[in-house]
Specification:
Distance between the termini: 64 Å
Number of domains: 1
Number of strands: 18
Low-confidence stretches: 6-22
Number of helices: 1
CATH class: Mainly Beta
CATH topology: Immunoglobulin-like
Largest sheet: 5 strands, antiparallel
Radius of gyration: 21 Å
Mean pLDDT: 87
Length: about 210
């Protein structure tokens, strides 16, 4: 093989290797704590991946569900990506009137049973607080984020992800914040290119 051909082949192999390395996602655990160092359970965590597109593709519509059962919203916290169509099925024998006056989406689904014929598309990031105009004790939140990588922390304040190498920004929200936007955390998640296949762990703080 000529030297020039060999160098071209070597360069292509290295480039492909770099692409493959960048495309590998590793298991990564996030521990979310409050300012006092206590775990934050039931918090929404969104990770904005370095160099990755964040919008939902129009060719791949995404849907989710915020139901009503036993006169409660289920789930009480739903996190979706911008562009997601959310259905509001009523599984109760009584009718509900779902509403929200939140800046990202005003909702007014008057007294109904079953499932409304049209879902509601959440096309702006932020927090939508939901209520029922008939049953005051019913409440829930829909968190809308500009990334496909998100989760809700478990009872220990932990959330699991599959992350590629890079420095990734993190946003989070917790009901105790009573805020209509997610909070950008000062700490980024740094996944090294030489991270072990077992992945890693990041401990982050959300100031309430």
């Amino acid at each position: 093989m000529k030297t020039s051909s060999f160098l071209k082949a070597l360069g292509l192999a290295l480039a492909l290797g770099s692409v493959s390395a960048a495309a590998i996602a590793l298991p990564w655990t996030v521990q979310l704590n409050n300012a006092a160092g206590k775990p934050l359970a039931g918090a929404a965590v969104a990770i904005e991946l370095q160099g990755r597109a964040s919008k939902v593709s129009a060719a791949k519509p995404v849907s989710a569900e915020m139901g009503q059962r036993e006169r409660q919203f289920q789930p009480t916290l739903l996190i979706v990506q911008t562009g997601t169509a959310v259905n509001f099925p009523n599984f109760d024998v009584v009718r509900h009137h779902v509403y929200s006056f939140s800046p990202i989406k005003v909702i007014d689904i008057k007294l109904y049973s079953g499932t409304p014929s049209e879902p509601i598309v959440f096309d702006k990031p932020g927090v939508a607080a939901l209520g029922c105009n008939i049953h005051d004790r019913m409440s829930a939140h829909i968190i809308v984020v500009d990334t496909p990588v998100f989760a809700i922390t478990d009872a220990s304040g932990r959330a699991s992800f599959e992350l590629p190498a890079g420095e990734h920004r993190v946003k989070a929200w917790h009901p105790s914040l009573k805020a209509l936007t997610l909070q950008g955390l000062p700490q980024a998640i740094n996944v090294p290119g030489n991270a072990p296949s077992t992945g890693g762990h990041s401990s982050l703080t959300l100031a309430e």
